[in-house]
Amino acid sequence: MKTNICGFRSALILVPFLTFLVIEAKAAQVVDIAPSPMDGVNIEAVETYPSFREHGLGLGLGIYPFNPYYMGLLVNGSYLYNFSSAAAWEIVNVNYAYSIQNDLTTELADRYSVNPKRITRLNFLVSTTGHFTILNGKFVLLKEHIRYFRTAAIAGLGMAMTNEVSSIAPQIGLRFEVRTGEGFSWALDVRDTIAISTTTNYLTFTSGINIGL
Amino acid sequence: MGCRRIFFAAILFAAVCFAVPGATRAAQPAWQANIPGLASEPKAWSSLLNELQENGFRAGTLAAATRMLMFFTDLQSKEAAYKAILALVDQGYPFSVLPYFQAGDLSPSGDYEFVNSYNLYKAVLNRDKGLERWAKQYMEGVDTAHYRKFVFLEAIEAYSKKDYKAAEEKLKSLLSADMGPELKAFARKVARTLARTYFDQEQYAKALSIYSGFLLKTAPIDPHDWLEAAWCLYYLKRIPEALGMLYNLESEAAQEIFSLEKFTLRALIYRNQCAVSPADLLVQSFQKEYGDIIRGLKRGRPLSEFPKLAALETSASGEFQQIKITLQWLNQELPLVKKLSKEVASLAAYVYNSEILMLNKRVKLYSTAALEKAAVRLIMMDENLRFLKFSVQREKYNPDTIFKADPATALPAAVSDERNVKIRWLQHGDFWRDERLNYEGAIPNRCFD
Question: Which residues of B touch A43 (CB under 8 A)?
C-alpha cells in the first residue's frame, strides 16, 4: 500500500474499518520504511495520479445502527463537485431512513411492563459538506488488482428530520473512496450528524457507488 | 607326466571357456538397449504428448517428442513429434531446436504451417552443414514469397550482414500483417529484432518506443528487454530513466538471468555523471555479490565449487545454459505430473526421470568450458571496476566532458496541474506492476563541480 498525506510522503496507516478488505499491503503497518536505493541513488516511480471526474453522482445504502429502539436502513443519494484533487464540495447529500423496530420495546413491555409512548424516528438527513482529501494512495487487492483510493475528511451543515421535529445539524465524517474504473468509484462514509435542538447525534454508515460525470 | 598334461589342458580349456564369452560380451556395443515395455506403444506416446501440451509442460513435451523420434519409425509418430516441437517454438521456446531435425526424413504435405516450417528448418540445417543441394531441395518446399518465418529468416540474415534497410523493411512488413494471439511469441521476436535494428543504426528513440510501447508491456517480460531499453535511454542521455530501467533488474523477476552487462551500464552512467560515490557503491555491491567467487578463483579453487558461476550468461554457455534451464523446468514439472491421466502417468514419470538422468550427465560435457569462460568474464569485470572510481574522478578533468553543455538531469516538476497530480513513490524494494516503466533515479552531474 502506498500513501501520500498532504504532499508529504509517509508510510501508510491502515484505517481500522478497512480491515474487512483483503489487502496485499506489502509495506503496511510499519512507519518510516527505509528506501531501497541502488548504488546509493534513491529510485522513485513517477506516475500521474488518476483524477476523479469533476462531477460525481452518488447512490448508496447505509445503516443507522445506534438507536436503542430501532435500526435505521438508509437509502442515500448525493451530488459532488470536485474542485481539485484535494478539495470537493458535496452540494447535497440526502439520506432517507427506514426504521425497523428492534426487540427492546417488546422486552420492556414483557419484562418491565413499560410501554414507551413516543419514539422519535429519523426520517431524513440532508446535508451540504466540504470534502478535504487527507490521504491518497493505492493498494493491491487479492494479489492481482491495483486500486487507487483516497480518504477525505468531511465537514458541513445539514438538517436532521424526524417524525417529530426538524433540526439544524452540523455534520462531520470520513470518506474512503476506491476508484474501480474510469468514472466509477466505490465509497464508504462514516458520518456523525448532531441535531442541535435535540442534541441527538446520528452516526451513520453508508456505502455506495459514485458515477463521475 | 601324463596327469600333469591333462591337468594343464583342463585349466587351459576352462580358461578358454570363460575368456571367449567374456570377449564376446565385451565386443557387444554397451549403448544398445531395448525400449521398456511401458514405452513401447506409439499410441500411448501420442496420448502423452497431447496431455503434456494441454497442460503446458514444455520441457516434458520436448522430451517426449525427441524420445518418440528416437524410438519409433512410423510416420504418424514422427509427424506428431515434429508438430509438437514446432508448436513449442511458436509458443516462445527460447532455444534452438534445429538439431532435432537432423534425423528427420518426412515429406510432409497438407498442413501449410507444418509443411513450410519443417522444410524451412531442414533447409537451414542442411545449409549450416554445407549441404547446399539438400538445402536447396528443402527450400523449394517453402512458400518463400509469403511464409512469415522465411521472411523473418531473410530479415535476420540481412541484419547480420548489416543491411539494416532491408531488415527493417521485412520486419515492418511482418509486423503490419494480421497476427492472432497464437503468434504472440513470433511477434515479440520480430519486434525485438526491429528494435535491435534501430539500435544498431543509432535510432535510439525508435528502438525505445518498441521496448516501452510493446515488449515491456506484454507478458511474459524478458528481463533482457529492460537492459536493452536501458541502453537506449543511456544513449538518449535520459540518465534518470536509464537508472530506473536498470532498477528493474534488481527484482526477483530478473534473477533468472545473471548478466554482468548491468554493471557495465551502471558504471558508464556514473562515469558519465562523474558520480564518485555511486561508482564506489557499485564496486562494493559487485564485491558483495561476487567477491567470494573471485577470491576463490584467484586462489585456484575448482570452478564447480561456485554454483553462481554456472548461472552467469556468457557467449560460450549457450548449450550449457539450455541444458541447465531445461533441467530446471523438468524438475519444476515433475511434481505436477500427477495432474495427468492415469493412462499416461507412468509413461510420463519414465520420460521425466530418464530425461533428468541423461541431462545431468550431458551437462558435465559443457560445464568446464562454460565455467571457464564465466570465470574469465567475472575476473575481467572485477579488474575493470577496480579502476572505475579513478576513471570517474578523471572524467572531471576531461576537456571533452567539462566543455560540453550540461545535459538536463533534474527530474521534471512534481505537479503539472491541480487535476493531474504527479506523485513520486519512493522505492522500498517492492516492485509494482504498474510502475515498472516509470522508475527514475535522480543523479546530479558532478562533472561541472
Answer: 243-244, 247, 426-427, 439-441
* Interface list for chain B against chain A, based on CB atoms closer than 8 Å: 243-244, 246-247, 250, 266, 270, 277-279, 281-282, 285, 411-412, 416, 418-430, 432-435, 438-443
- Listed by start position, the domains of chain B span 202-257, 271-404
Chain B residues whose CB is inside 8 A of the A23 CB are none
Complex prediction ipTM:
0.73
Contacts 24+ apart (CB under 8 A), A166-170: A167/A195, A167/A196, A167/A197, A167/A198, A168/A195, A168/A196, A168/A197, A169/A125, A169/A127, A169/A193, A169/A194, A169/A195, A169/A196, A169/A202, A170/A194, A170/A196
Query: Which residue range(s) make up the domain with A111?
Result: 2-212
**pLDDT above 50 for B106:** yes
Which range, A59-68, B12-21, B30-39, has the best average confidence (pLDDT)? A59-68
Q: Which residues have C-beta within 8 Å of that of residue B404, sequence separation ≥ 6? A: none
Please report residues of A whose CB lies closer than 8 A to that of B244.
Answer: 43, 45
Q: How many beta carbons lie within 10 A of that of residue B126, not counting itself?
A: 20
B27-77, pLDDT tens digit by residue?
Answer: 556 667 777 888 888 889 999 999 999 999 999 999 999 999 999 989 999
Q: Which of A4, A41, A49 sits opposite B441 (nearest CB)?
A: A41
Q: Could you read off the pLDDT of B270-291 as tens digits, one per residue?
A: 988 888 889 989 999 899 888 9
Angle between helices B342-386 and B276-298 (to 10 degrees): 110
B278/A40 touch (CB, cutoff 8 Å), yes or no: yes
Task: Give the Å distances, CA to CA, from B77 to A171, B52, B89, B105, B130.
Answer: 78, 15, 19, 12, 29
- Which residues in chain B are closer than 8 Å to A45, comparing Cβ atoms? 244, 424-425, 427, 432, 435, 438-440
**Is residue A55 packed enough to be buried (19+ CB in 10 Å), middle (13-18) or exposed (0-12)?**
middle
Cα angle: B36, vertex B39, B43; to 5 degrees: 155
Q: Is A39 on the interface with B (CB under 8 A)?
A: yes
DSSP of B3-31 = HHHHHHHHHHHHHHHHHHHHHHHHHS-TT
Q: Quickly state the pLDDT bin for A37 (edges 50, 70, 90).
A: confident
Our CA-based measurement puts residue A47 at a distance from the nearest CA of chain B, in whole angstroms, of 6
3-state secondary structure of A91: strand
Tally of structural domains, chain A: 1
A143 part of contact set with chain B, CB < 8 Å? no
* Coarse DSSP helix, strand, coil percentages of chain B, rounded to the nearest 5 percent: 70, 5, 25
Dist CA B113 CA B279 (whole Å): 52
Closest CA to A84 of B425, B413, B421, B422: B421
Find the CATH number of the domain harbouring A78: 2.40.160.20
Nearest-CA distance A144 → chain B (Å): 10
* Residue in A43, A86, A140 nearest the CB of B427: A43
This prediction's pTM: 0.80
Give the one of B250, B427, B429 whose C-beta lies nearest to A44's C-beta. B427
